[in-house]
Amino acid sequence: MTALGRTVGIIGAGIAGLACARTLAANAFDVKVFDKGRGVGGRTATRRAEPDLAFDHGAQYFTARDARLQKVTADWLSRGVVAEWLGCVVRLENGAVTHTSPQPRYVGVPGMTAMAADLASAIRVQTRTQIVAMSRGPSGWTIKTDAHENFGSFETVVVTLPAPQSAVFLQPHAFGAIASTLQMTPCWAVLVAFESKLEVPWDGAFVHNSPLSWVARNSSKPGRSGQSDCWVLHASPEWSAAHIEAAPDTAARLLLDAFSSAIAQQLPPDSHLTAHRWRHSHGSDADDRRMLFDPEVGLAVCGDWLAGGRVEGAFLSGVSAAEAICDSQGLKLGESGS
Ligand SMILES: Cc1cc2nc3c(=O)[nH]c(=O)nc-3n(C[C@H](O)[C@H](O)[C@H](O)COP(=O)(O)OP(=O)(O)OC[C@H]3O[C@@H](n4cnc5c(N)ncnc54)[C@H](O)[C@@H]3O)c2cc1C
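^ thats the input. predicted complex w/ flavin-adenine dinucleotide below
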């Protein structure tokens, strides 16, 4: 049974928001999550096109160094939510290929949204709902949507958007100033399927001295059998920033040319080619405040940008925010996001 006053509204159903929601729900909080997207997952995203094409155009894989994410990952592995990607990942520089140090790389099955879908499975999540404002009154927080709907009252609100978007919501609270000082870099992602298999002896590459920073054969990941030869190409932060307002078709063609140059090969004809612009792709690896919480007003902030970036940072940030909310109510955390 939910205790009176333990109502939490969470803005954003990415890994941070869902890890927070899941942990709070496991500790008898009444949680509701809102996301503007069609589905959950945020930057752990998979785009499908035609019956046999799929592209993880955001996060490519995740690593689990912290014991809390390792525990959840073990559970996901046992239930087939994720699998280890055993693809050959190399470093590619001026045509020279060198091998990277092996480490477990996990991917969602059949796409990178699988982890978010699993975290969201027992939680109230309202998608296609863009939040435009939030305000605190005597009975708690009210959240307002772009369709002029109001949700609340919530005792606590958790903001989990990328830093620049969070900053807008958090003003005039001091957390707004913190969020507005943290930069996030953009990333152009190209989603391309080839008519015939591209012959390279590896599945993913960190690319140097190129407009590209990463390329991967999406169809080499586990659980993607039957897919055509689908590739995801990520541009470097510098190239992405310099071409941020380019038309998607232009960005796609330029980056395809860069791919051909990086592997010194002509590419097979493409049967599908699109590009996606991530305006807020990565934060600073260095920032590790983990989360922000003001118990006086019931306001928490979490997201990858507060915890070293990446899926793991987002997860730990969300769990830490839940932990702080539990602590503020004198509760000992009963479950670590699993
Ligand atoms: C191109 C790219 C490659 C990456 N590669 C990797 C990788 O290989 N490995 C790795 O670990 N990480 C990688 N990352 C980073 C990883 O995806 C993120 O660190 C992580 O997914 C962030 O989770 P989050 O919950 O903090 O934020 P998000 O996933 O951004 O979640 C925020 C959510 O808020 C929602 N939202 C935004 N505004 C509103 C609003 N006004 N109202 C309602 N909802 C709103 C969004 O729709 C989104 O679902 C990559 C990211 C990108 C973009």
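The chain has two domains: 7-45+116-182+285-328, 47-113+183-282.
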